[in-house]
Amino acid sequence: MNFRTEIDLPSYPFRIGHRSPTLLLGSCFTEHVGRMLERYLFPVSVNPFGVTYNPLSVKKVLEVLMQKKQYTKSDLSRYNDLWFSFDHYTLFSSTDPGVTLQKINRACKDAGTIFSGAQFLLLTWGTAWLYRYMATGQVVSNCHKIPADRFTRERLSAREIIVAYEKLLPRLFDAHPELKIIYTISPIRHWKDGAHGNQLSKSALLLAGDALQHQFPGHFFYFPSYELVMDELRDYRFYAGDMLHISTLATDFIWERFSRSLLSDESRKIIRQMEPLLKMLEHRPMIKEGEAHTKLIRKREDKLMDLKQKYPDLPWEKLS
Fold it and tell me: Does 188 share its domain with 284?
């Protein structure tokens, strides 16, 4: 007997490979998949502005990259001696505006390199709720610990999301005719909205994505990460201690389904061959001397040399 409901994944008319530049934007699910692609040396850029939750903030990142915008001091704000951008995560902040701008513009440049030749764009929308800074009316990606009474909070409707992307996507596809967008809805629940509020939010995201998928066939595709957790796993053992975020086991499960349905056969073969090397590189021996350690180093170097000869185009220097 099968004791779970299995989700049938779509049949995608393409595959992502190690020669497929890919930009990943959005919430924590983007981070999970993106870090796995990074681990296996895919040419990716993962959340160059930091984790981004709502569709309008994700859209803003795309617009900035399309414009090849360079941030200046006028784009920054200051609070509690920190200079920051409302478009970016807190790790970009600094007491020195020059340092903040250096971090931001370096990330923009690096992401722009991937984006200029991107074959795939993976978007993960986390919530339809957003925060708007009252002083400027700007939708923010992060509130940077500024008091809540300086923001208004609103929930986007499916129609508002559709309208926003209807204006963006034709320009994006004109610049990148072969680009394929894979969108997902984060399975992580936003509990501050309450159970019902969270469902309304996720529903708006699902309806908007479905409408855009029908409007841009051949360009816009759905990967059901939300359903895999909600319906196929459907058990609290697949959640972290807060019972809201998913566990490492669930993340590994989703990655396995993602790789099986969206990665090329060649890349999956490369991943299988890389795994023993990665485990050796990640191993932290208690004793870094003696014959056993020497053998491990030699075995690791031999494995790396073998893979370099088989796949010389991969950026093996990133493993050092």
Answer: no
Q: How many CA atoms lie within 13 A of 59 on its CB side?
A: 17
Q: What is the pLDDT of residue 249?
A: 81
- Beta bridge partners, 120, equal 22, 180
Residue 319 lies in domain:
265-320
Contact 158, 212 (CB under 8 A): no
Q: What is the pLDDT of residue 232?
A: 75
10 Å CB burial of residue 215 (0-12, 13-18, 19+) is: middle
Q: Is the dihedral of CA 315, 18, 213, 190 positive or negative?
A: negative
Q: pLDDT tens for residues 155-169?
A: 999 999 999 999 999
pTM score above 0.90: yes
Look at residue 174 in the predicted model and tell me its pLDDT.
96
Q: 286 pLDDT band (50/70/90 cuts)?
A: low
Beta strands in the chain (DSSP E): 22-26, 44-46, 77-79, 82-84, 120-125, 129-133, 138-140, 151-155, 180-185, 220-222
Number of folded domains that form the chain: 2
Residue 219 lies in a domain: yes
Is the Cβ–Cβ distance between 63 and 43 less than 8 Å? Answer: no
Q: Which amino acid is at 108?
A: C
Report the C-alpha gap between 142 and 220 in whole angstroms. Answer: 27
Q: Look up residue 135 and give its amino acid.
A: A
| CA pair distance 253, 36, nearest whole angstrom | 12
Q: Is residue 248 part of a domain?
A: yes
